[in-house]
């Protein structure tokens, strides 16, 4: 079944003095049907976080440009991109005397397969016809508490330490990465990558409905608009990338290849 891709990346500065998020959807330079979406949420004071997030995008784009889909694995590309970005962000401390860090979530789309990876609390959501199929699990203190049974997922949503990360790119310790993939792709599937400035204001059912009922561009516009309203003047940077899979309608009664209609005189 032929599938088309409807994609859009968007962001808003929110109520912060600086935009420290970065988001991009990057097509492969040589391989048709291969593209990579990435969201990075920078941290580290004035300009430091923005530089860290920018490094994630720069490193990922460079690695994608050199990626050979037929010879190299998607997971290798994602892990290598995050690991290299971590090294470069960490090294930048000595040059600019800042303490830069960044989260990262990225997804590689190839014909018939999607692969994703993340570090920190920027998330990937996967929906089918508006129903949640799964999401990444944050590398955060509250998700750790949920995992060991200390608090419930509902309590995690309002926990005072929900933004405390246990790993990130650019920190002193080696970062933690988690990965996932699927070859079960159908029209009606949608993926959203986003920073915590987005997911903090939505439940999964509402997200799924917005992605199902709107084009990628319109969904981005509505999600940002609703997040801004709900932030009530104290909102974080907002960044998201939406990828929707659509069925391509094949025209019926198409003439056979090589058929040339003739008219009689």
TrEMBL record:
SMART domains: PP2C_SIG, PP2Cc
Pfam hit, one: PP2C_2
Secretion signal, residue range per the UniProt entry: none
Superkingdom, natural source: Bacteria
Source lineage: Bacteria, Pseudomonadati, Pseudomonadota, Betaproteobacteria, Rhodocyclales
InterPro entries the UniProt entry points to: PPM-type-like_dom_sf, PPM-type_phosphatase-like_dom
The protein's name: Protein phosphatase 2C domain-containing protein
Coiled-coil zones: none
PPM-type phosphatase domain ranges (all copies): 6-245
SUPFAM superfamilies to which the protein is assigned, alphabetical: PP2C-like
């Amino acid at each position: 079944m032929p599938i088309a891709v409807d994609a859009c990346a968007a962001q808003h500065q929110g109520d912060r003095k600086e935009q420290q998020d970065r988001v991009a959807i990057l097509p492969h330079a040589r391989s048709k049907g291969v593209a990579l979406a990435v969201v990075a949420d920078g941290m580290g004071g004035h300009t430091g976080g923005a530089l860290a997030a920018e490094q994630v995008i720069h490193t990922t784009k460079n690695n994608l440009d050199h990626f050979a889909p037929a010879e190299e694995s998607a997971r290798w590309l994602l892990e290598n991109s995050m690991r290299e970005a971590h090294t470069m962000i960490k090294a930048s401390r000595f040059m600019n005397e800042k303490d830069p860090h960044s989260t990262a979530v990225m997804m590689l789309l190839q014909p018939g397969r999607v692969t994703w990876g993340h570090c920190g609390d920027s998330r990937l959501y996967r929906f089918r016809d508006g129903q949640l199929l799964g999401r990444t699990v944050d590398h955060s203190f509250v998700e750790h508490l949920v995992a060991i049974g200390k608090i419930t997922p509902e309590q995690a949503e309002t926990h005072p330490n929900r933004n405390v990360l246990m790993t990130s790119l650019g920190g002193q310790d080696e970062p933690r990465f988690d990965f996932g993939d699927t070859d079960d792709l159908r029209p009606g599937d949608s993926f959203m990558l986003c920073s915590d400035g987005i997911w903090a204001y939505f439940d999964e059912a509402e997200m799924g409905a917005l992605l199902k009922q709107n084009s990628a561009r319109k969904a981005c516009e509505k999600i940002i608009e609703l997040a801004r309203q709900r932030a009530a003047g104290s909102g974080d940077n907002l960044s998201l990338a939406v990828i929707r899979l659509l069925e391509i309608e094949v025209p019926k009664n198409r003439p056979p290849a090589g058929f040339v209609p003739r008219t009689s005189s």
